[in-house]
Amino acid sequence: MLYPLKFIPIYKTYVWGGTKLAGLKKIKNGRQISESWELSPISGNISVVANGFLAGNSLQELIEIYMGDLVGESVYEKYGMEFPLLLKFIDAAQPLSVQVHPGDEVALKRHNAYGKEEMWYVIEAESDAEICVGFNQDINRKILQESLHNRNLPDFLNFEKVKCGNVFEIPSGRIHSIGKGILLAEVQTASDITYRIYDWGREYDAKTARQMHVDLALDIIDYSSHRAYKTEYEAIRNSSSDICRNRHFSVKTVDFDDTVIRNYADADSFTVYMCVDGSAVLECNGKSETLIKCETILIPSEIDEVRLIPDQRARLLEISM
C-alpha cells in the first residue's frame, strides 16, 4: 500500500541565490541555495524517495511500478511515464534574469519537449521586494530590440510590489523576473526550457555572464500590457481556497489552525502539498508524516483521504492535475 512520499531535495546554486533556504532546510555553514527542486522528473535531476520502504527509488521507477495508483489513471493515460510537474522553492538574494518560456507547440518543434507555464506563491518578501511580470505598456518586437541595444529594457517592464501570500501566474510568452529579497514556491509544468533576454548588466561581465537567448525569444513574447498580473483570492480559514486553475494544474491554499480532512475519492490525480508556513502532521492509511515550512510531500492517487493536523497554525499549497 502506498503512503505519503517525501523526496530528497535537489539543490541548485546560481549567481542570484541566497541563504534563506539553507536555514530552513537546516543546512549548516550558510550555504547559498538558489533553488530546491522538491519534486522533479527532469532528466539528470529525477527525484528520489526519502522516506518509508520505497526510499531510494526514483520518481520514474515509482510510476513504472504503480502507474495510475500513483499519479491517477487519467494522468497516466495522458503523460505515461513522465511525471507532469516540477515543484521548487526559490530564494532570490539578487534579481533573476528577465526571461520567457515557450508554449507546448514551440517547445515541441524546437526542443521535442513540453512548454513551460508556472505559478508563484510568495512565502517571504523584504519590504522593498518587487517582481517583474509583463510590460507596463504595449510594445512590439522592434521596441524590445532597441531597448536591449540601449540597455534600457527596465523602462518598459511592469514591476509589482510583493508581500507574503501574493500569487502570480506566468503563462508561456509572458516575460518575468523574481526580484531580490524574495522566497517563493513555484509550481510549473515539467519543462526546464528558459530563454533569457536581459540579466541586469550581469551579461556584460565576464565573471557573471550567462548565455542569452534573445533570438529564440523574440517570436514567442506576449508584447501586450495586461490590466492585472497579480491573482486576487481570499484565504478561508480551515478550508481550501482556489488560487490557480489552468489547463495543466490546479493549486489551492489550505490555511488551518484546526484539524482539516481532505477527501480525494473523486479526484483521479495525485496531490502534492508544499508547506509555505508553520508545520503540520499528515495522517492517512495508518501512516503519519510531519511537514514543516519549505518541505513537500506527494499523496498518491490511490489514497482517498488525508487528515491535516496543524502545530498551532499552518498553510499549505495543495497541487493536483
Can you walk me through this structure?
There is one protein chain. This protein is mainly beta. The longest helix has 10 residues, at 141-150. It contains seven helices and 21 strands. The protein has a seven-stranded antiparallel beta sheet, with no helix packed on it. The protein has two domains: 10-231, Jelly Rolls (Sandwich), CATH 2.60.120.10; 239-320, Jelly Rolls, CATH 2.60.120.10. A hairpin with a 2-residue loop joins strand 18 (271-284) and strand 19 (287-292). The chain is 14% helix and 38% strand. The radius of gyration is 20 Å and the shape is globular. The mean pLDDT is 95.
Query: Given the C-alpha coordinates, what overall shape results?
Result: globular
What's the CATH H-level superfamily name of the largest domain?
Jelly Rolls
Protein structure class: mainly beta
Helix fraction bin: 10-25%
Please trace the helix and strand order, writing H or E for each element: EHEEEHHHEEHEEHEEEEEHEEEEEEEE
The average pLDDT value, as a whole number, equals 95
Strand share of the residues?
35-45%
Helix count from the secondary structure assignment = 7
What's the number of structural domains?
Answer: 2
Task: Specify the biggest β-sheet.
Answer: 7 strands, antiparallel
Q: What gap, in angstroms, lies between the N and C termini?
A: 22 Å
CATH architecture classification name of the largest domain: Sandwich
Radius of gyration: 20 Å
Count all strands and give the number: 21
Numbering strands along the chain, what is their spatial order in the largest sheet? 1-2-5-12-7-10-14
CATH topology of the largest domain: Jelly Rolls
